[in-house]
Amino acid sequence: MRMIRSSRKLPSLPYFWSLIDWTLPSINPYKGKLKRAQSIQDLALIAKKRTPKVVFDYVEGGAVDEIAYSRTRDAFSRIEFNSRVLRDVSKIDTSEKILGKSVDIPICFAPTGYTRLMHHVGEPAVANVAASKNLIYALSTMGTTSPAELAAAVPNSRRWFQLYIMKNRSDSLAVIKQARDSGFETLVLTVDTPVAGLRYRDNRNGLTVPPKIRINTVFAIARKPIWWLNLFTTGKLEFAAFRGWDKPLSQLAGLIFDPATTLKDITWLRSVWKGPIVVKGIQSVEDAKAVAKLGVQGIILSNHGGRQFDRGPIPLEILPEVVKAVGNKVEIYIDGGVMSGLDALGAIALGANAVFIGRAYLYGAMANGEAGVDQVIEIMRREFENGMALTGATNISEVRKNGARIRSK
């Protein structure tokens, strides 16, 4: 058999020239890594290098042995979609209505404390991304920006306010008034914190706001000088709703978490807040039914990101049953462990109206401030849209119609 050989030609210099990437390397060691980041985990690795250990551990960690968070992530990894083919998916619509108003994609920003620890701009940076992307941002009672400050910084954002029922109800009323006067549209009542969870990572690190200057802090400053410079030059770091408090988180939690909170307090809250109420921290079908009867507008299935009870239920695993029980009465959201667009898509396919992300956007903030939060949303949007197309869905209604399941191990 005669062997075929390729013909040789003189090399084309213009063609060779066109193959060369003439981009100059950046003097910023993180710029190239940020540009190459493909997933939230890539951003988490960058965040770990840019922030002190105590800060990164606060975001990454959970309660006790951190089993609840591990199980939550495992549940998301076992989502299997029902895929349909031979569908026209040339146009994808990710928009959805949440409490009567449209968002561009059903991914919301969950309330997180200590946000200015992750990046010195803090809550306004996240709210600004939410406003630019037509999404929802929920400000925490334990945020480092007050409701009034956030409203002034990002007046056009769709703002929800997360609330704890405090031991002194007048304290709760004062915070509620701040939210109402600052144009917040919805209260998010967190109910999975009758007492503070045991967060061993934070206790070992001695986490306080502001961070205490100890001997080992000197070495931390040497390793993360830019983070510390930003901390020292951008105003006092404190819980905006509790100005002047500088004791450990566990002590503050003991002040504002009321172990005597019951269903009657939701009825009381409805009497003092005329807007929508969403109850966050539901972990059973029975509680979902009980809360839905009280006239709230939504519930968030949540185990607090595995940061409260380390042997609690996994929200994703009870989601289909809760949707079946009360999905026609209230909107159902889910949070905890949502670390990709496919995680979000899976929860929507299983019946959720929307998902809330926390760790994911904090990794982005630690990695690159507001631009990092924006990058998180764009990564998740790309994964969400790609997943929709590959399952044959062109809108959120079709995502739910196609459905998904959680595979057994």
Q: How many strands appear in the DSSP assignment?
A: 12
Briefly, what CATH class? Alpha Beta
Number of helices: 19
| Structure class | alpha/beta
**Mean pLDDT metric:** 91
Find the CATH superfamily. Aldolase class I
Structural Rg: 23 Å
What's the number of structural domains?
1
Explained architecture:
Pfam families: FMN_dh (PF01070). Residues 32-409 form the FMN hydroxy acid dehydrogenase domain. Belongs to the FMN-dependent alpha-hydroxy acid dehydrogenase family. This protein has 409 residues and is an alpha/beta fold. The protein has one domain (41-406): Aldolase class I (TIM Barrel). Helix content is 46%, strand content 12%. The protein contains 19 helices and twelve strands. Strands 4-11-10-9-8-7-6-5 form an eight-stranded parallel beta sheet. β9 (298-301), α16 (315-326) and β10 form a beta-alpha-beta unit. The longest helix has 33 residues, at 359-391. The mean pLDDT is 91.
Quickly describe the structure.
The protein has 409 residues and is α/β, with parallel strands linked by helices. Helices cover 46% and strands 12% of the residues.
Main traits of this protein?
409 residues, alpha/beta, TIM Barrel, 12% strand, oxidoreductase activity, acting on CH-OH group of donors, flavoprotein, Aldolase_TIM
